Amino acid sequence: MLLNDATYVLDESLTKFPKIHDLQEALADPKAKNLTQEERSAKEEELATAENQAQSYMQLANETIAMMKLFTAALSESFTMPEIVQRLADMMDYNLDTLVGPKSLNLKVKDPSKYHFAPRMLLAEIVDIYLNLGGSTRFIEAVARDGRSYKPANFEAASRVLERYSLKSREELVAWQNLAEQFRRAKEIDDQAEEDLGEIPDEFLDPLMFALMEDPVILPMSKQTIDRSTIRSHLLSDPTDPFNRQPMSIEDVIPNIDLKERIRVFKEERKAIAKKIIESRMDSAEG
Q: At what angle do helices 2-14 and 16-28 cross, to 10 degrees?
């Protein structure tokens, strides 16, 4: 629930600022004097609506991220469980990209404090969450597997902001940079190892995520096979079978033991060899 809330309020708040930015620019443009009174009123009303929404959602976002920072420090294992960790990593990478990536300039608005928006402090809080979870290999691999928003350049950009505005101590900056390097290395290893798996049989792929399943289970109503982490994640917000919308719970799933064993053998044979070769090459290069 906390992860769902954080994802929702951050998205709702941060997506309002580019709209506010564009409307403020449009109304300040000298060409705006050519607008009719009706057109100007419409833009001003649209701006006021976006501002009110941004103010409400941003306040909630700040509170939710502060709570997540506390919880990840005290209960990091709960946030790195298989059914949670990939969603969390994807959310973290997406918001880091929003704050320091190429589109971050669109977040600039007049008087951001009016909306409880302090982007540098928000960045510092998000960095703390990364650091809280950085001791988990599962989290590091999940960040590296995020094909949509994980970008090494974002971690470098965040480092520059943290250092420029003295948002973190020297020790914390070093820890952040070390963590960024672990993400980079994990990404290289995972990409190469995944490539070296070769063609994956369709029956081994999760039908929703199209990724190699780790723990396949059979859904009792639709009889579809899906990875346990995928269906568990789905059921956190929608207690139905995703294939036929019939009510169900995680206790209803049936382990597909035979398929799980065949996947395990396939994965271990292909990936273990690939990783050893890759890590050996990387160690030699670093040495």
A: 10
Q: What are the two backbone dihedrals, phi and then psi, of residue 178, each rounded to the nearest 5 degrees?
A: -65, -40
- 106 and 227 inside one domain: no
Looking at the fold, whether 127 and 206 belong to one and the same domain comes out as no
Count of the separate structural domains present in the chain: 2
Q: Are residues 247 and 164 in the same domain?
A: no
Q: Which domain holds residue 270?
A: 202-286
Residues 71 and 93 in one domain: yes
Task: Name the burial class of residue 89, with classes exposed (0-12), middle (13-18) and buried (19+) by CB atoms within 10 angstroms of its CB.
Answer: buried
Q: What angle do CA 9, 12, 16 make, to 5 degrees?
A: 140
pLDDT in tens, 216-230: 999 999 999 999 989
* CATH number, domain with residue 269: 3.30.40.10
Question: How many residues in the chain?
Answer: 287
Token code pair at residue 35: 């607008």
Is 245 found in the same domain as 141? no
pLDDT digits (tens, 9 = 90+) for 165-222: 999 999 999 999 999 999 999 998 877 776 667 788 999 999 998 888 989 999 999 9
Please say whether the dihedral angle defined by the alpha carbons of residues 158, 174, 86 and 55, taken in this order, is positive or negative. negative
Domain end point (choices 162, 196, 230) = 196
Cα dihedral sign for 73, 77, 81, 85? positive
pLDDT value of residue 286 = 64
Q: How many CB atoms lie within 10 A of CB 69?
A: 18
Of 141, 152, 177, nearest to 101 by C-alpha is: 152
